[in-house]
Amino acid sequence: MNIALVILSAGSSTRMGTAKQLLPVGDTTLLGVSIESALQSNSNKVFCVLGAHAKKIYKSISQYDIETIPNDKHEEGLSSSIVEGINFIEDKHFDAVLIMLGDQPKVDYNYLNMLVTSYEKNPTKISASKYLNNTGVPAIFPKLFFKQLQQLRGDKGAKYFLNAYKTQVISITSEKLIDIDTQEEYQNFLNSL
After folding, report:
1. Where would I find the MobA-like NTP transferase domain in this sequence (predicted)?
2. For the whole model, what pTM was predicted?
């Protein structure tokens, strides 16, 4: 199975007040943590969608063996990054795409590999992360869903899509699914290390 892993990291971090992708975590950044987990996973190639602050962020991640995807429409919301990611990889012979966020630093390669394993056992189903009452990303979508993903609009990203295809989704629960959106969440994460 040939799996593309696409990290969505194009947002402007309005609630944080600064580019959260560049926030220091140990000897890397918040986005760097996600990239390192992605590179250690069983995916075949890692891509990162960049939009706001792209030049600065690109410089901070240039040492990683990944390919970046520009998203000039990032102000249209998370869906625009998913669409750009799928548009970029669709003709590159991937069987599936694993979509993750650049601001979920507790999502490690073991968790990503659980999604990959679930997909390998169920190659026609979506394997997605289960939150309290929702399903979301990280999630792995077989190629047969690429066309529908390219129709996404707005800031809800994959959540509505996953709810619409509930019968096609295998849910995987984890306590690692925290997002970092505010200074307080960032401090709490640093304190937990």
Report:
1. 6-165
2. 0.96
